[in-house]
Amino acid sequence: xxxxxxxxxxxxxxxxxxxxxxxxxxxxxxxxxxxxxxxxxxxxxxxxxxxxxxxxxxxxxxxxxxxxxxxxxxxxxxxxxxxxxxxxxxxxxxxxxxxxxxxxxxxxxxxxxxxxxxxxxxxxxxxxxxxxxxxxxxxxxxxxxxxxxxxxxxxxxxxxxxxxxxxxxxxxxxxxxxxxxxxxxxxxxxxxxxxxxxxxxxxxxxxxxxxxxxxxxxxxxxxxxxxxxxxxxxxxxxxxxxxxxxxxxxxxxxxxxxxxx
Length: 261
Prior knowledge:
Elements: H1 4-24, H2 30-45, H3 55-74, H4 82-107, H5 117-135, H6 139-165, H7 188-204, H8 209-215, H9 234-248
């Protein structure tokens, strides 16, 4: 399968590109872009959480625990003291990193049903429900965040499958066909359980209509400009160019960011 750094690099690049397109199309705020990016990266690493105690998995759980703990802390009252906020953050981090991680590694098998397409749908719905009910994000935002999780997850499976095909010309590896799968023939109980839980979570998920209407309607991408019209980066350097021209002309200096008449 692909290496940890490969999954991290590819998921980071793809998530940042997709989130940037949403920002350029006025379909996401800067805060939502950061959330979507994080979910995409986590999704790109998530299929390997069944690898027990390997270093990448420990790093992944540390990252997930850190992000969730900050989200929990951010949604507390503003008048809490620093000690109260840090205690809450630390408690959340230890529960996720130590308790949940330990339980998860005991009940999962590497390259089992967690490393599959139905698991990607399961984690999409889990992400959506948690962000909606515990962190009070809007319906369209939580579904898109879950979609980024799903997209990163699927990207991970595809990368592993491509590596197992051994495109360099040699015969496929023994792991070919075990990455991008819809069931685990060796463990039908876990396969049925994941499908059943996914169906149950879908019934408990928030309404997806705002998500579809916002991101997949015929007018969703009307504000998107993939390439600039005319000069590249003209908005980036225009204010500095005007400032330089005023200096060379001997006019009073205009502070950067001041309104122009």
